[in-house]
């Protein structure tokens, strides 16, 4: 816990002086929000109005973990390793806030074609307050080269998320803001997955339901902190890797050629007294992101 607050303190101390007049704004004159996302994984390109966007990033865990590493078309090895990946994200936004995104991930260690995977999402996601978003996201086992009889992707195991973003009442918001030009935006949502893997039965189950709610604070335009809580109406559907909550903080760039850095923790987090999840600070991931100048 002490590590978390020390790192947050360093981040806050690094905030440069900024004038509200220099705030980055969209075509309608509204300030761009950092760290506003429909899902817990988030989208890299919120606030970016370009039709084509791309980002190259490096992500690293903070401790070694036991993982399954595919080494052939029908085999895998178990080993303790530091999970580090190079990621290429590409997004196409044909109109308004409609988008399609794919992210390819290549491990730094144990690199072979079977360890390369990808994640994808698409839908409508407006990052402004008082808007509704509908997004499909698949962050599971998606591989360009498959192992054994596995498919390239399991579309039915992705999740559809319906969310509503909103601002807090002005008296409440003003009492929480630290600097002029800072902002807070919150969201509530519902996520549904047609199929999901259940560890206890080692089988595929139907109709996973998750409620979510959270807020993000943007300060000095580019720095952000966000947190989201999750509730499973049927507690038996929550797997060990499904967190009770997620949190992240960092610096978000917007323009092509800029950089972002963030820390995120969501896998297996648990509230005190609720199970034995992996909610320690070192269970999180640090990512350095470069927005491609395209």
What do these coordinates show?
Keywords: Signal. It is a single chain. This protein starts with a helix and ends with a strand. The protein has a single domain, classed as Outer membrane phospholipase (ompla), Chain C, CATH 2.40.230. The chain is built from 2 helices and 12 strands; from the N terminus they run H-E-E-E-E-E-E-H-E-E-E-E-E-E. Strand 7 and strand 8 form a beta hairpin. With 294 residues, it is mainly beta. The protein is globular and about 55 Å long. Strands 1-2-3-4-5-6-7-8-9-10-11-12 form a 12-stranded antiparallel beta barrel.
Q: Layout of helices and strands, plus pairs?
A:
Blueprint: H1 2-13, E1 52-70, E2 76-92, E3 98-107, E4 117-124, E5 131-138, E6 159-166, H2 170-176, E7 183-198, E8 203-219, E9 223-231, E10 245-251, E11 259-265, E12 285-291
Antiparallel strand pairs: 1-2, 1-12, 2-3, 3-4, 4-5, 5-6, 6-7, 7-8, 8-9, 9-10, 10-11, 11-12
CA-CA gap between termini: 40 Å
Q: What is the CATH domain class?
A: Mainly Beta
So, CATH architecture? Beta Barrel
Here the CATH topology equals Outer membrane phospholipase (ompla), Chain C
Spatial strand sequence of the major β-sheet: 1-2-3-4-5-6-7-8-9-10-11-12
SSE order, one letter for each helix or strand: HEEEEEEHEEEEEE
List the total number of helices: 2
Q: Structurally, how many domains make up the residues?
A: 1
Number of strand elements: 12
Overall average residue pLDDT: 79
Signal peptide: 1-20
Keywords: Signal
């Amino acid at each position: 816990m002490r590590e978390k607050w020390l790192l947050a303190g360093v981040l806050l101390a690094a905030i440069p002086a900024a004038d509200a007049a220099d705030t980055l704004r969209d075509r309608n004159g509204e300030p761009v929000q950092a760290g506003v996302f429909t899902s817990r994984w988030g989208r890299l390109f919120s606030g970016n109005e370009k039709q084509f966007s791309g980002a190259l990033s490096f992500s690293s865990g903070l401790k070694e973990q036991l993982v399954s590493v595919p080494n052939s078309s029908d085999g895998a090895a178990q080993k303790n390793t530091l999970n580090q990946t190079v990621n290429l994200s590409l997004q196409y936004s044909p109109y308004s806030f409609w988008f399609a995104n794919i992210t390819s991930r290549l491990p730094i260690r144990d690199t072979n074609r079977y360890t390369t995977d990808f994640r994808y999402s698409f839908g409508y996601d407006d990052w402004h307050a008082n808007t509704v978003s509908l997004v499909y996201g698949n962050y599971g086992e998606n591989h360009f080269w498959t192992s054994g009889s596995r498919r390239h992707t399991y579309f039915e195991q992705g999740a559809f998320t319906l969310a509503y973003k909103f601002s807090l009442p002005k008296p409440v918001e003003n009492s929480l803001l630290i600097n002029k030009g800072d902002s807070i935006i919150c969201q509530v949502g519902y996520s549904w997955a047609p199929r999901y893997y259940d560890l206890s039965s080692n089988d595929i189950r139907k109709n996973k339901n998750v409620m979510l709610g959270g807020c993000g604070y943007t300060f000095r335009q580019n720095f952000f902190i966000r947190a989201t809580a999750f509730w499973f109406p049927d507690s038996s559907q929550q797997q060990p890797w499904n967190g009770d909550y997620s949190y992240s903080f960092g610096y978000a760039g917007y323009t092509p050629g800029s950089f972002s850095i963030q820390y995120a923790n969501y896998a297996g987090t648990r509230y005190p007294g609720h199970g034995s999840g992996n909610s320690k600070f070192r269970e999180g991931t640090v990512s350095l992101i470069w927005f491609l100048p395209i």
